[in-house]
Amino acid sequence: MPSRTLEFEGCVNFRDLGGYATTDGRLVAWRRLFRADGLNRLSEGDLAQLTDLGLTTVIDLRTRDEAEHRGSFPVDRVPVTYLGLPLTDVLPATETLPDWKEAAYVASRYGAMVTEGGPMLTSAIDALAATDALPAVLHCSAGKDRTGVLSALLLAFLGVPDETIVEDYALSALAMERLLDRLKAEYPEAQEEVERYAPAILHVVPETMEQFLAELRAQFGTYAELAGFLGVTASVETLRATVLVEA
């Protein structure tokens, strides 16, 4: 069985969304959909690995400021369709950082990403359903919040059970300590600021995703109705036809 976590020198939270069983007895195909943290510090070996994977599409969910100041995916080295689709306009304000240790608060922020960032989610899902769009990777800076929201929606629309979506979300906890260490090394002149963001970076608990999914069901009823709200019903059907395989 393929490895779910892929090792790269330039990122710490690169994972495959394949292999998950759906409620109708099929599987999400391996090596078609990936999720990751920042892809702006990739090494030569990383670029070779992505080329070997046949990567075709990169969806960047970071803010425009993040992409401008930290850099973006090197399309000149690995030709892909690169889409900058910021799911939020700004990073969390410093005064709200302590709240990111509370599952209920984080789940509410995820819900806001769906309602306020709907057009970006719609564009991302439509792009993934386009002809020859896969394999694709979706990413933000940490690969757990904005990426976690879009990954959860994709898995839900594909028919993956909620409990599996929660388990996939929780896997990011293993990478967050490594990410924090990397940020400290990358920004030695901003140690105090990095430490302020540490609670928001390190907080990954199953309860957050459980509450987020429960809120989606309470608000929209079913994932099919949520797909209709986002205007991606046709794209979801296309993804189900191209990504799901028989078990």
Overall description:
It is a single chain. The protein has 247 residues and is an alpha/beta fold. The chain has a single domain, classed as Alpha-Beta Complex (Protein-Tyrosine Phosphatase, Chain A). Helix content is 50%, strand content 10%. It has eleven helices and seven strands. Helix 5 packs antiparallel against helix 6, helix 6 packs antiparallel against helix 9 and helix 7 runs antiparallel to helix 8. The longest helix is centred in the C-terminal third of the chain and has 15 residues. The model has no long low-confidence stretch (mean pLDDT 94).
Q: Say which CATH homologous superfamily is assigned.
A: Protein tyrosine phosphatase superfamily
What is the count of DSSP helices, taking H or I runs of 4+ residues? 11
CATH architecture: Alpha-Beta Complex
* Coarse structural class: alpha/beta
N-C termini distance: 13 Å
Shape verdict = globular
| Strand ordering within the main sheet | 1-3-6-4-5
Helix content: 40-55%
Percent of sequence in beta strands: 5-15%
CATH class descriptor name: Alpha Beta
Q: Which terms would index this structure?
A:
Protein-Tyrosine Phosphatase, Chain A, 247 residues, 11 helices, single chain, two-stranded antiparallel ribbon, five-stranded mixed sheet, alpha/beta
